[in-house]
Amino acid sequence: xxxxxxxxxxxxxxxxxxxxxxxxxxxxxxxxxxxxxxxxxxxxxxxxxx
Length: 50
Hints:
Layout lengths: L1 H7 L4 H11 L19 H7 L1
């Protein structure tokens, strides 16, 4: 499941789900892979990298 995959990737599952659910509506469909647990980075991490 998505939750188990997030756990296997060492993510805080609650933070992951909260972030993905708030971003998914505005996220481009062709870039949904970025929101998968093994690719995901919190929005704050992405802002610091820019």
